[in-house]
Write a structure and sequence with these properties.
Elements lengths: L1 H22 L9 H6 L25 H16 L4 H10 L8 H7 L18 H6 L5 H12 L6 H19 L3 H15 L11 H12 L6 H4 L9 H14 L3 H9 L5 H15 L6 H11 L4 H16 L9 H4 L9 H23 L1
Helix pairs in contact: 1-8, 1-13, 1-14, 1-16, 3-4, 3-16, 7-8, 8-9, 8-12, 8-14, 10-12, 12-13, 12-14, 13-14
Amino acid sequence: MPCRYEERALACLWGVAVGDAMGKMTEGYWPYEIPAAYGGPVTGFREPIQPRSRHKWGYAEVTDDTRFTLLVAASIIEKGRVDRRDIARRILERPIKGWPGWEEFKAANNLDHIGYRTGNGAPMRIAPVGILNPPYDLRRLVDDVEAACIMTHYVSSAISAACAIAAAVSAAIEGWSKKELLELAMEAAREGRKRGRPDGAPPIEEVVRVGLHKLEGAETGIGWALRGLNPGFEAWEGASFALCLVWGCDGAKEAILEAVNQGGDADSIASMAGGILAALNPGSLPAKWIAEVKRANGFDLAPVAKALAGLRSKRAMHRVVPIPADPIRTLRGCARGEKLLERLLKARQEDRKHEQDENEHLG
C-alpha cells in the first residue's frame, strides 16, 4: 500500500503543477477570447499570452497555486503534521509570485493572523492535506484543512471548498470510485461549512448537484454542458467546477484541457481537477506535460510525494476508529468487490431469526 500511495501522491502533485502551469495561459479569459489569442483551442503548452497580468510568465511556469501547494507540503513534511503557525511563517518568508494577498499578509506580520479571503487560494493549496489524511477520519481531515487555511481564508465557503477538494484527493489516493470520492467530498464540504466566518455563499454540494444534472445525458461537450456554472475566482465557484470536471472527464488530461479552454480561474480549476484525476488514474496525465513543467521550473516532486505518502501510511496504521451505532453498516464501501457487507447483513439476519426461534421454543 505505501508504494501505491507514493505513486498516486506523485501523480497528484504533478497534476496540480501541470494544470496550474497550463491554466495560466488562459486565466482571466472569456472562453471566446481563447481561440482568438492562441489560434484555436489550447491543446498543449504555449508561451502564455497574459497582457492583463502584473507578472511575466514563462513557458510552462507554475504560479502561486503550485508554489503554495509545495509550501504547505514542506511544512507538513518538516513538522509531521499540519502546523498553522509554521505555514504562516513560511508565507511570511518571501513573496509568492502571483498571489495577490501577500502584501496584506506581510503587513499583518503575525503568525496567528486570521484572514478572510474568499477566493480559490484555499482549495488550490490543499492537495498535501488530502495526501496526508486517509479518508476514514473526516473530522481530522477537516481540522487539518482549517489549520492550513485559517491564516488567509477563514470564511465558511473557502473552508468548505478546501475540505471538499482535500477529501476528493484523499479518496483518490485511496483508489476509491468516483461516486465514493464525490460523496466524501460533499460530506466534507458540509462539515467544512461549519468552520470559519459565515459569508452566505451557495453551498458547494448544491452547486455540484446542478453541475452533475447538466452533465447527465449531455450530448454536447463537457464545456458546453457546464455553461451556466461559473469557473470563477471564488472558492465555491472554482471547487464546484473542478469537482464537476472530475465527475465528467475520463482522466487528468481531458479535465485540464476542459478547464483551460473555459478560462476564468483556469489555473486553479485545472490544478484541482488535474490533481484529483491524476491521483485516481496516474496514467491519464501525459508524461510529456510533466517533463515540460519539470524542465521549466526545475523541481523534483518525487521526494515530496514519498515523504507525504510515508506520513499517510503512518496515519493509516494508527487509525482511531470510533465505535458506530451499527458497526456492520459502517463497513459499506470498505470491502468493494467482495460483497462482504451483504454477507454480514445476511448472517446477522439469520442469527437474529435463529435467536427469535429459540426464544419462542423456550417460551
